[in-house]
């Protein structure tokens, strides 16, 4: 998703839950708060014909996954995998829910007081969130973007080595 606000462009990558499910056959488990980052932990999902028809639950949990069994995931006895396209779709749906839930939890924690937020979230995330809010509320957002270019470019650099300022701007 892309949206432009004045001269600032906001983007959101929504393909990751599908790649994690399809390419890596992994499920998002739960959000982990590490000292310097937030991480959505993953777990490998069983892929073996012995689970065909199984009543065993998935090794991860969500309102979606809790209604499914390994027999819903492993359905074929021949080929490279015991999964079919519906199996990957079911896992992708679980991953999308987990990602949305994790984002909602982080957003909730960002609405707490700064002192309370710092108990749950990396300080750098809180500081960048404050700066982004100020940019979006400012009458002169480019002034703030230029002032905080180094910090904000660290966010942009995480995706496609892009920058928030034109190439010819001195930092």
Number of strands: 4
Structural class: alpha+beta
Order of helices and strands: EEHEEHHHHHH
Strand order of the largest sheet: 1-2
Number of helices: 7
Shape: elongated
Give the termini separation. Answer: 28 Å
Runs with pLDDT <50, length 5+? 159-171
Strand fraction equals 5-15%
Percent of residues in helical segments?
A: 40-55%
Question: Can you summarize the main beta sheet?
Answer: 2 strands, antiparallel
| Rg, alpha carbons | 20 Å
- Overall mean pLDDT: 83
Primary descriptors:
two-stranded antiparallel sheet; alpha+beta; 171 residues; single chain
Q: What can you tell me about this protein's structure?
A:
This protein is α+β, with helices and mostly antiparallel strands. It has a domain at 2-113. Helices cover 44% and strands 15% of the residues. It is built from seven helices and four strands; from the N terminus they run E-E-H-E-E-H-H-H-H-H-H. The chain has helices at 16-22, 70-73, 85-110, 114-120, 123-137, 141-147, 149-157; strands at 2-5, 8-11, 26-34, 37-44. The strands form two sheets. Strands 1-2 form a two-stranded antiparallel sheet. It has a two-stranded antiparallel sheet with strand order 3-4. The model is unreliable at 159-171 (pLDDT under 50).
């Amino acid at each position: 998703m892309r949206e432009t606000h004045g001269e600032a462009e906001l983007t959101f990558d929504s393909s990751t839950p599908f790649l994690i499910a399809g390419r890596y056959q992994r499920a998002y488990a739960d959000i982990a708060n590490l000292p310097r980052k937030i991480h959505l932990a993953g777990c490998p999902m069983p892929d073996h014909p012995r689970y065909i028809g199984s009543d065993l639950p998935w090794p991860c949990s969500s309102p979606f996954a809790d209604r499914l069994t390994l027999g819903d995931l492993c359905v074929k006895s021949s080929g490279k995998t015991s999964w079919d396209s519906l199996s990957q779709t079911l896992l992708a749906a679980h991953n999308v829910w987990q990602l949305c839930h994790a984002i909602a939890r982080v957003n909730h924690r960002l609405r707490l007081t700064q002192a309370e937020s710092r108990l749950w979230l990396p300080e750098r995330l809180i500081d960048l969130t404050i700066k982004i809010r100020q940019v979006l509320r400012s009458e002169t957002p480019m002034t703030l973007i230029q002032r905080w270019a180094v910090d904000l470019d660290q966010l942009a650099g995480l995706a496609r080595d892009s920058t928030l300022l034109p190439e010819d701007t001195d930092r």
